[in-house]
Each structure stands twice: as C-alpha cells, then as structure tokens.
UniProtKB/TrEMBL annotation:
Residues 260-450 form the Carbohydrate kinase FGGY C-terminal domain. The keyword Phosphoprotein does not apply. SUPFAM superfamilies: Actin-like ATPase domain. Signal peptide: none annotated. Gene3D superfamilies: 3.30.420.40. InterPro entries: ATPase_NBD, Carb_kinase_FGGY, FGGY_C, FGGY_N, Rhamnulokinase. Residues 6-250 form the Carbohydrate kinase FGGY N-terminal domain. It comes from Paenibacillus sedimenti. Its EC number is 2.7.1.5. This is Rhamnulokinase. One of its GO terms (biological process) is rhamnose catabolic process. Keywords: ATP-binding, Disulfide bond, Kinase, Nucleotide-binding, Rhamnose metabolism, Transferase. It is an enzyme of class 2 (transferase). Belongs to the FGGY kinase family.
C-alpha cells in the first residue's frame, strides 16, 4: 500500500523547518525529507525584542508551496506545527493580531518574577502548577505587560501561544493546545485547566484563555483563502504536542519504559518521562519542572542554558567580522587545553547578555579562574561546563524519580556537535545515545500518524523511530580527569549559587 505522507513545521528559537514524513506501515519504516529551512532571527525595536511572527507565517506558507512543487501536496494527509514555548500573541475581538509577540528573552520581565512570587508564594505556585521558575514564563510576561502596556491586554479577546497563533492564521480556528499551555505556569497540574485563583491574582479575564485541547486533536483545516492563495487543496491540521520539547520527548528512541533524555538545541532540556508530576520539596529546591507531555505523560526536566551560549558567542564574533561556523568553533575548542575554567551555564548573567564572550570572561574573572581568551578557549569552557552540568542534572533527575539510567539519550540539532556528545559521555561516566537529529519534527510527525490511525500508540511510535534512524553510541573515556573536573566544577558553581 502507498505510504502515508504528512507535513511537520518545527520552529526552534534559532531556525524553523518544514519536514515531509512518509510512513510505510507494512515495512515499519518512516523517512523524512527537509523541504524548507529558514532562520528565526528575533528583531529588536527600540528596547523591545520581538519574534518576526509574520515572517514565520510567510515561511510556513512557503513550506506548503514547496510541498506542492515537490509533488507531495496532493498526498499530504495532515500538517502540524510545534515551536518553542511560553510566548504568545493577543487577538482583538475583530480577529486580528494585536502587536508583535515579544521574545521570551526581552528584558521586560527582569525582576518581575521575584515580585510576583513574593506575592503568591513559591511553594503555592509550584504546588499548583508544578512548573520551574523561569523569569520568562508566560505568567511573568503577562504580569509585566499589565504594568507596562495595560491597554494591549485590555483590548485583547484571546491569548494564543505561538503554535496556536500560527495554526489560527492557517485555519481561522482558535484552540489552545495542552503541552504548550502547561509552560505558561498558569495551568493547574491537577485539574489540567487554567488556575482560576492565579488568573484572579493577575486580574486576567478568564475569557482570554481557551480550555486546552489534548495533543493529537484535529483542529480544523486550511482556510479557503489560503488554499486559493497557494493553489492547494485543503489540508487537515492537527494540534500535536505543540511544545517543541514535548515533541522531542515523543521522538526519544528508547526501548525501556524508564529513560533519561536530553533535548539539545538552543536550550538543553534534560530529564525523564513520568506518569505524574513530581512536586516534592526537593524538586522545588532544584527548580525542576513538570511540563505536560502527550497522552497523559509528564515531563520531569530542567532547562539548561544549552547551545544558546555558543550561538551567542558566534553572533558576537560574526558581528566583529570573524565569521566562524559551528563546526569551525568545535574544531577550535578541540584544540584548546582541557579543564582551564568553568561556568555555571544557568547563571542569570547568561540569559541575554550584550556580549556573550565578554560575559563568560567576566564570570571566570569573578570566580578567580583563568580567563579564557581565544575563541577555542571560550567554546571549550562552554562545552565542558555544559557536559558537567548535564551530569549534575542527570543525577538529580535520578534522585527525584528514584530510577537509575544506564545512559543518556540525546536528540536535536546539538548532536551535530560530536565533541559535546563525547564530553557528555565522559562527564556522566555512562553511554550517550545520540539521535535522531530532528527530534521535535519527528515527534510532531508521529503524533499526526497516531491521530490518523496509522500508529497505535506512543511506544509503537518510538519503536518505529528506533528502526528508522541511526543512533550513535558514545562510550565514556578519560573518566578520572572528568571526575576531577566535576568536583572542581561543582565547588566553583556552588560558590556562585548553582542553579
Ligand atoms: P533550535 O531547534 O533550538 O533552533 P537546533 O536543534 O536546530 O536548535 O540546534 C541548533 C544548534 O545545533 C546550533 O546552535 C549549534 O550549536 C548546533 N549545531 C548545528 N550544526 C552544527 C554543526 N555542524 N556542528 C556543531 N554544532 C552544530
Ligand atoms: C525549547 C523551549 C524550551 C522552553 C524554551 C522557551 O525550544 O521550548 O522547552 O523552556 O524553549
């Protein structure tokens, strides 16, 4: 029988892609083809940082057009979008978008979290939502907006998270998808609906937020206007696990029920899948999160600053005219001396500094370490520190879940940094299993196929991914040196409030 074709749009904080997936159910094989990729550069206007949302919508239309030109469009049975979390657009009563959505790294939320947390109480917020405290969670963005730009909120009829918003542009239908809704820190983990008390505290009208629909729900199809504009037949649209990290976790090719994962892109999201939220005091103290997963699963994980640190070093050097690719930077790091200095990647200073390399140097100076000078020294410091941080968070995940993991699955664009994969194996003293690289897009695709009835469930989907894509094993090396480095890293980071 003919393979089933579906289309995934995966929007990361650094780039977006359109991927065609083809499933041969009889052979138990699936293949993917990247048909479109585009940068997702945020835009600074005055002192505000925005996403270029209309451009992203344009690129999604380009992706649909390309699927047509490649001859797939007539076969595409559905499409779906996933993206980074927490950000949103506001819709006016007349159905139009109000303003440009803000980027979660905009400084408007600086200091806001402490204010609101003092008001509500940290324990209470965690008990209700199960979420980690990140200064850019939607709840703090809304609170900041309330103070800074109240008329915008007053005019708004509906809040739509980024994938909800782009999906609304495509279908004309407004729905809120569950996994991404959990990242707002406004959803109650027990009721899986908006927490009325929190909405009241923020004086947010409850009409703003739509009751979340489960991942995998069919939520309309391309509008007639879009079909005419692109000259394509209408395509059904599915709300998959629209939080990119939820989709990445779907795609972890684990054979066991209990596994640890690292979704490695702009952010490094490290944790495990559990049946219910872990709301212990320890989870709160370590600032772990419980984000909603697909099909009732829970994602116990922690955000680690991730490859953002490298992206931002690259951007600073690009601006200075020393254009180096990621592969060049990794090569330079490989040539630099090991274990010279470490940073805590999750120090607030690294969330959105003016100049990342200088910020890293400053951190090393402040912590009385050697100050890295060359590009290679700086990137080596970042990569070793990330690998060591992964160990800390992996061990904490084990303590919280009460499980022991024999290795770590890594998915996402970051696995192209093979030196980082090797460092990670060395640091955690266990195997690393790297792949697939397009984790989020694959998770997006397989949930569409589950909805369409081609794949039975989540574990079948993971088996299928395991059978269709290579997984590269990295075995730990140089254990003693890394153990010593971990002790130094841990002491250094503890002195400056390990996050
Ligand atoms: P996101 O989805 O968050 O935008 P990706 O999963 O696409 O991010 O990962 C992008 C990151 O992968 C880059 O920031 C870079 O650090 C890393 N990367 C991509 N290609 C390479 C490469 N050839 N060598 C080393 N690292 C790479
Ligand atoms: C990764 C991600 C992560 C969120 C952050 C805002 O792309 O979705 O899970 O915390 O972006």
């Amino acid at each position: 029988s003919k393979p089933s074709t579906v289309l995934a749009f995966d929007l990361g904080a650094s780039s977006g892609r359109a991927i065609v997936g083809r499933l041969d159910s009889e052979a138990g094989q699936l293949t993917i083809e990247e048909i479109h990729r585009f940068p997702n550069d945020p835009v600074k206007v005055g002192s505000r940082l925005h996403w270029d949302i209309l451009r992203l919508f344009h690129e999604i239309k380009q992706g649909i057009l390309k699927s047509k030109h490649l001859g797939y469009a007539q076969d595409v049975e559905s499409l779906a979008i996933d993206s980074w979390a927490v950000d949103f657009g506001l819709i006016a009563p007349n159905g139009e978008l109000l303003g440009n959505p803000y980027h979660y790294r905009d400084h408007q939320t600086d200091g806001v979290m402490d204010q609101l947390v003092a008001q509500i109480g940290r324990e209470k917020l965690f008990a209700k939502t199960g979420l980690q405290f990140l200064q850019f969670n939607s709840i703090y963005q809304l609170y900041a907006l309330k103070e800074r730009n109240p008329s915008l909120l007053d005019q708004a009829d509906t809040l739509l998270m980024i994938p909800d918003l782009l999906r609304y542009f495509l279908t004309g239908e407004k729905h809120s998808e569950y996994t991404n809704a959990t990242t707002t820190q406004l959803l109650n983990a027990s009721t899986r609906n908006w927490d009325q008390e929190l909405l009241d505290q923020l004086e947010l009208p409850s009409k703003l937020l739509l009751p979340p629909v489960p991942s995998g729900t069919k939520v309309g199809s391309l509008t007639t206007a879009i079909c005419e504009e692109l000259d394509v037949a209408s395509i059904p649209v599915i709300a998959v696990g629209e939080h990119d990290t939820a989709s990445a976790v779907v795609a972890v090719p684990a054979l066991d029920q209990d596994f640890a994962y690292l979704s490695c892109g702009t952010w490094s999201l490290l944790g495990t899948e559990t049946l219910s939220p872990v709301l212990s005091e320890q989870a709160l103290e370590w600032n772990f999160t419980n984000e909603g997963g697909v099909y009732g699963t829970n994602r116990l994980l922690k955000n680690i600053m991730g490859l953002w640190l490298i992206q931002e070093c690259k951007r600073a050097w690009d601006k200075e005219g020393r254009s180096l690719g990621f592969a060049d930077l990794v090569k330079l790091a490989e040539q630099a001396a090991p274990f010279q200095c470490f940073i805590d990647p999750d120090d607030d200073a690294f969330l959105n500094p003016e100049h990342m390399p200088k910020q890293i140097q400053q951190y090393c100076r402040d912590t009385q370490q050697m100050v890295p000078q060359s590009e290679g020294e700086i990137i080596r410091c970042v990569m070793e520190s990330l690998a060591l941080k992964y160990r800390l968070i992996l061990e904490r995940t084990e303590q919280l879940s009460g499980k022991r993991y024999s290795g770590l699955h890594i998915v996402g664009g970051g696995i192209q940094n093979e030196l980082l994969c090797q460092f990670t194996a060395n640091a955690i003293l266990r195997e690393v299993w790297a792949g697939p690289v397009e984790g989020s897009a694959l998770g997006n695709l397989v949930v569409q196929w589950i909805t369409l009835g081609y794949i039975a469930n989540l574990s079948e989907a993971r088996k299928l991914i395991r059978n269709s894509f290579p997984v590269k094993t990295y075995t730990p090396d140089d254990g003693e040196a890394w153990q010593e480095a971990y002790e130094t890293f841990y002491q250094m980071a503890s002195r400056s409030t390990v996050k």
